[in-house]
Specification:
4 strands, two-stranded antiparallel sheet
Length: 115
């Protein structure tokens, strides 16, 4: 005996409500709210006419995500090509910057002489 388990929500009265079976029984009913879709996920126009099916909407989203991924990969490659090799960079020490007067308000340090 195999039973499929569906998520059931309890109503305010404590009665179980199976929203999945309700949605499956009424796929063309418009949804509540301002989404302008039906239960199935089709985009609706005026007078509940189907403008785009759920499959068309999903295909458009997949294309858009693929384009965004290509753009981000292209930008990553450009950054890698323009990035300098960090091991070859030489950074001055703080004392050198102070002695050169590049840090305002800092006093110059004298190098200690060896005894």
């Amino acid at each position: 005996m195999s039973r499929t388990l569906r998520k059931q929500t309890l109503s305010m009265r404590g009665e179980p409500v199976d929203f999945a079976s309700l949605a499956a029984a009424n796929p063309k009913q418009p949804t509540l709210g301002n989404t302008r879709t039906n239960v199935r996920g089709d985009v609706l126009g005026p007078q509940a006419q189907v403008l785009k099916t759920q499959e068309q909407v999903q295909a458009e989203r997949a294309k858009q995500q693929a384009r965004q991924q290509q753009v981000s990969q292209t930008l990553d490659v450009k950054k890698q090509l323009n990035a300098p090799d960090m091991s070859e960079l030489q950074f001055p020490s703080v004392s050198d910057l102070v002695n050169q007067g590049q840090i305002p308000g800092a006093t110059k340090t004298k190098k200690a002489s060896a005894p």
